[in-house]
Amino acid sequence: METNSPYGARLPNMASRQLTGLDLAAATYIRTRAAADKLTQTDLAERSGIPKSTLSRYWNGDRSMSLGDLSALINALGDDLADALVKIDGLRSDSEQDA
Questions:
Q1: Measuring CA to CA, which residue among 47, 38, 43 is closest to residue 72?
Q2: What DSSP string runs through 3-58?
Q3: What's the pTM?
Q4: Domains, the chain
């Protein structure tokens, strides 16, 4: 992501970073589980206590999730944290093998 400087040049946004396979796997897991339960982003945001704007960035793979937010989302989906982390790690492994 880039930002405009007052001099007209586009500068890289130093706050952004490349997401890891684990970040993307966590986002995939949350989207897939929410869809299976027919939950919207608004539903999940309300259940988890995470602002919808933040959830949307996670959902779209635009932002890395903190462990606290990931835990809140997993709990909001009614899933066991340990089981979910194993599944997320499996999604990460699968996507890295496809690359």
A1: 47
A2: EE-TTS-EEE-TT--PPPHHHHHHHHHHHHHHHHTT--HHHHHHHHT--HHHHHHH
A3: 0.77
A4: 20-98 (1.10.260.40)
